[in-house]
Amino acid sequence: MNMNAFSKKVAIVGTGLVGSSCAFCIVNQGICNELLLINKSHERAVGEAMDLNHCGDFTHSRTKVYAGTYADCKDMDIVIITAGAPPKPGQSRLDTLASAANMIEGIVANVMASGFNGIFLVATNPVDIITYHVWKISGLPRNRVIGTGTSLDSSRLKSILSDIIPVDPRSINGYSLGEHGDSQFVAWSHVTIGSKPLTEILKENKERFGNISLDEIMEKTRKAGWEIYNRKGTTYFGIANALTHLTRSILNNDHQITAVSAILDGEYGLQDVCLGVPAIITMNGIEDIVELNLNPHEVQQLGITYDVLRSNMQTIGY
């Protein structure tokens, strides 16, 4: 890739609620110079591009937004895939795997046929398995295929904790790991507030925080998306901002650490799987995977989420 001050070109495939919200975030934050929108209904993409271009007088920098085709992906630095449908009532994210995998095959094949040689950012659920699928179909190095993973779950965790312990969520450091789904878990041994371990804070402040249940907080984190889904039908603002954050991290070569769906090749003792772990994000994509020193219980939980993902991956031939 050749990302310099005159490049910074991003494409979004899928201009539904997630894709259009992501485009809105990117335009408002002035992250890229050009933003290409691709949608099954081209006219929908044209409408979104027109609407976003009309923001130009009110943003601090100009982003050229236009609708196009897969052929236009050739010189994109990043292609963001948001296409997909939310689960139907009673379904989990994993229940959408077969239809999502089939749809993704066509998208990735078309993008790669353009000559694309950049970075894929994937939000389509079930995101861990779909990210692995994109990697396999694309033939790109594993560092250049990134899923949103547990980035949003980790943000939800910090938001929930900040409601209980009165600090800004940005002063909380910690991650939800594993599947972006029901088998994810919080690595409590690595959650800190102002660099102080949360477990120490709870022990030292039993009168204030003695009634806090870490299991309840973890369950709230897991179910946060469903709480939103049950009220408004799907989620899009949070995931759109997670995608925007990752896009900025790549284009600015930020070296920020974010929990993303990363394809593992020996990290955490796991191979041939993609799941949510902290990683350093740069212009190369995943520069490095951060291996946390998990305690025995957390290692066991990581094994459970691995087994869930691997068993579901087998249903689409992996």
TrEMBL record:
Tree of life domain: Bacteria
Xref: SUPFAM superfamilies: LDH C-terminal domain-like, NAD(P)-binding Rossmann-fold domains
Pfam families: Ldh_1_C (PF02866), Ldh_1_N (PF00056)
Pathways per UniProt: Fermentation; pyruvate fermentation to lactate; (S)-lactate from pyruvate: step 1/1
UniProt record similarity statement: Belongs to the LDH/MDH superfamily. LDH family.
Residue ranges of domain Lactate/malate dehydrogenase N-terminal in the record: 9-147
Compartments where found: Cytoplasm
Subunit structure comment from the entry: Homotetramer.
GO terms, biological process: glycolytic process; lactate metabolic process
PROSITE patterns registered for this protein in UniProt: L_LDH
One GO location term (cellular component): cytoplasm
EC number(s) from the headed UniProt entry: 1.1.1.27
Alphabetical keyword list: Cytoplasm, NAD, Oxidoreductase
Residues annotated as binding NAD(+): 14-19, 39, 44, 70, 84-85, 123-125, 148
Domain Lactate/malate dehydrogenase C-terminal: 150-315
Entry GO MF terms: L-lactate dehydrogenase (NAD+) activity
Catalytic residues of the enzyme: 180
Protein name: L-lactate dehydrogenase
Main EC class the enzyme belongs to: oxidoreductase
Function: Catalyzes the conversion of lactate to pyruvate.
Chain sites annotated for binding substrate: 93, 125-128, 153-156, 235
Catalytic activity: (S)-lactate + NAD(+) = pyruvate + NADH + H(+)
